[in-house]
């Protein structure tokens, strides 16, 4: 077992331990570490179990203890969408035996009564099962929206009713049982991957059902109706304690080095003039879409900061190279980085729009800064998040279909300088206020954290 110097601190008399096990992907690690920050500030000692794959850096969290759980993951990253989801399912299984040993050792080392609970990502079913078998109470962290988890719960019903597997002829059909989703907005990966998706979501629901509660990185003013629905449909308590990055702002858990030079670069631009473009840590685009995106951005005339992550473009190793002539054409008003300090970028006064893939973290990070969005969902819950951004909160709109430079240009102008773009910005500003309120003294998320802490102490 690996540990750092924090172990001695953790053994202080009376300290309660919260153990955590994130799914090892950026969009899952970030909220788990933010939750760790919240619980640590409430007096809990933190122990993080983690895989070799996408391991966090213990040096950045000197107050926490880290326990490595060998995962046996090797070889190249999965390429197909089915393989990506299959890996998510496989991780819990791959870690199960080693985790059992590590958890037993931790329980022996800490006095058993001092371990309050283990918080686990909903996708790691085997980890919940091991903890339960060793009498450790679990809490489930789901890193997507409440609406998305309602979709997980409804999946068998949606299959029975014929919405799933998705048929091309039904893409625009409204899902009457789960408004405002249309069939195209549901989590799906086509007919071939249908069983895999059913398995993935059923496992997450099973994990929540054997846990002592569900923690969601959302907030009441954003998803009240969806939270009510979950509370009605689940037997375990639901804690809506987001936006976690606002409640625990110092938890740097980035797996890639953030290029901070872009913050200084932004300083030179007027307020709300720059479009920030980033598609998160996993989403990909075709080489053709990269070229059309590049020339669309160039043609819009709008200043931009663009995250072009290595590996973001499907194809050969150096395929993320931008088209010839792009850099020269945009040098005066554009910057491209491999990875950005996204929260700080979105907070920067110069940023006036966010072209995003609508991962849940990016969506909430944009909302919390009052930045309107262009949405280009790629897979998973991103289509559903896009639906909420466009149709429910009305703080952005989708750039759909095959990308063409002309339509990209027009979409960017509409968002950044158009009349309805201004309306979206105004509504985003209202949501920003709601996010500030929910994290304030008597705010809904603060109160939910109080309840969560009381709940943890009672387990
Ligand atoms: N992120 C970042 N720098 C970047 C792009 C993304 O730090 O250049 C962070 C972003 O702030 C968010 C996370 O990576 O917290 C991505 O999570 P999200 O759920 O949006 O998407 P995913 O990567 O899981 O698809």
TrEMBL record:
SUPFAM superfamilies, per the entry:
UDP-Glycosyltransferase/glycogen phosphorylase
Statement: the UniProt record of this protein carries the keyword Transferase: yes
Organism of this sequence? Sorghum bicolor
- Mention any Pfam family matching this sequence: UDPGT
Q: Which UniProt keywords apply?
A: Transferase
The record ties this protein, via InterPro entries, to:
UDP_glucos_trans
PANTHER family xref list: GLUCOSYL/GLUCURONOSYL TRANSFERASES, UDP-GLYCOSYLTRANSFERASE 76C1
Molecular-function annotations in GO: UDP-glucosyltransferase activity
The UniProt family comment states: Belongs to the UDP-glycosyltransferase family.
Q: What is this protein called?
A: Glycosyltransferase
